[in-house]
Design brief:
alpha+beta, Alpha-Beta Plaits, Aminopeptidase, 2 domains, four-stranded mixed β-sheet
Length: 221
């Protein structure tokens, strides 16, 4: 019997549309290298609990960490100050009206303690293709006529795989994320996949669960 986290040689993907079992990931969560960013492969990855994450000058790297950061929509944590923001008129929310603008902002807006971006040009084109066929979706936050925040991810029908978010106005990304969570709670989604631990998302109620618990939820529909 395989044990979670057991060190197994990393798989180099061929043109065949398949991935190794997520239990083959190394202790850091790296599962496979190579392949391509076709819509078919990306959808298979997300449906299998795997996601791509690599730098511009790297081979394509595929990950499935042993602990998965997720938010159960009904567990969203909204502070008193954010409740006022959510009820106020400072921000306006739209969906899928400017996916590419959100994607570009997520790639370019600087983040604390982060140099560069993993959203390479090839990744942008891949997610644009997924958007065109209805899987990749964006939530946009406006302050007047200015796009000040937002997020995008992959919608699997019962799980939303969050990919990235940005903010150029205080609380704008929180506004997008809370809006997403409240909508998905109303639509009976199981969870929002946040992939790896993030202190900001933890403050909003996201928690880590074991990889195989995540896989069971992912595959139940």
């Amino acid at each position: 019997m395989k044990k979670e986290g057991r060190h197994i040689p990393i798989t180099f993907l061929s043109k065949d549309l398949k991935f190794p079992s997520v239990e083959n990931a190394n202790p850091e969560g790296l599962l496979a290298v190579g392949g391509d960013l076709s819509s078919e492969r990306l959808l298979l990855a997300y449906q299998s609990g795997i996601f791509p994450w690599f730098n511009e000058d790297s081979l394509i790297l595929w990950w499935s960490p042993i602990s998965r950061m997720v938010l159960f929509p009904n567990k969203i944590r909204i502070s008193k100050s954010m409740r006022k923001v959510m009820k106020g008129s400072q921000f306006r929310l739209t969906k899928n009206t400017c996916f590419e603008a959100v994607l570009n902002a997520c790639a370019s807006v600087p983040r604390k303690d982060q140099k560069g971006t993993w959203i390479t040009n090839d990744m942008k084109q891949a997610y644009l293709r997924l958007h065109q066929i209805g899987y990749a979706k964006s939530y946009e936050v406006w302050e007047g006529d200015l796009l000040v925040g937002g997020l995008y991810g992959i919608d699997l029908g019962h799980i939303f795989c969050g990919e990235s978010m940005f903010s150029i106005s205080s609380n704008a990304s929180k506004f997008a994320f809370i809006s997403l969570a409240k909508e998905l709670e109303g639509r009976n989604y199981d969870l929002i996949d946040c992939q790896v631990y993030n202190e900001h998302l933890a403050s909003l109620g996201a928690v880590e669960i074991p990889r195989m618990e995540f896989i069971k939820i992912l595959q139940k529909n």
